[in-house]
Amino acid sequence: MNERQKRLARLMVVQEKVRAVHETRHAALVREAIAARQEAEDAMTRKQGPESLHHIFPDIYERRIASALARAEQAESAAREAAARLATENVRVDMTERAYRSAQRQADRLTSERETGEAVERTLPSLKQ
Question: What sign does the CA torsion over 26, 73, 60, 48 have?
Fold first, then answer.
């Protein structure tokens, strides 16, 4: 393995770790958005329920619902940004993998050419005799 292949292999390892971080971040943001939406739905359901204190404390219910919806919107926006970063990282990883495979093919080609050359050199002295 030549120096370029070694560098590309190390770069691929690092990029895979970075991609995993982006995937984890995106998944966490999606979970946050889902949880906030669910909290808003639960608050709305409780507000409509027979044992609701909505008539006594309407501000509290409305603020909680508005807060949950705002958190959900914020998390969804951040999740979209994280998805874009993840897509960019996926492209980087793919480009590095292609470069690594290209370097591998080039190294294999050089090795094959060297072996062919050596085989020809071994047969030439026998032809001269």
Answer: negative
